[in-house]
Amino acid sequence: MDPAQLHNLISAAFKARDNAHAPYSKFRVGAALLSASGAHIAGCNVENASYGAGICAERTAIVKGVSEGERAYTAVVVVSDVPTPTISPCGICRQSLREFCPLDTPVYMVSATYPALAPADGPPPAFLVPDADGGRWPRATDASVIAVLTLEQLLPMSFGPDNLT
Ligand SMILES: [Zn+2]
Question: CMP/dCMP-type deaminase domain: from which residue to which, for each copy (predicted)?
């Protein structure tokens, strides 16, 4: 994935956030997954008057993708309205991601300031750069906008599909 592709994935997450149904928490979240086939699958949180029936953005994206036949994901973006890159997937979403993502999957947590810095229809921002070590994933040079951790860092010593084979 190059910086332009990551920019598009981040922009897809913000577009989904804008569709969030969050009348109770007022906490809008968007997520976007890069599938192994190259598709971008986005989701938002969808709350319900029966609170327990709500679903997070990350799991919305997962169930959308899986139901369309996308069963493997290689990058994750999470966005919200919080102007710092500090909103990470909740515990149950980390476990759901574990089912369909390798442990080295990067999870990009992006500040709500991003769209103003890098509009969706514009080029990728200068602070997204290719991995200097030749890795597969771009990194962000501005830590006030993007934080990235791997799924394994977010969910250490996890239980996953390989534990049942
Ligand atoms: Zn969640």
Answer: 4-162
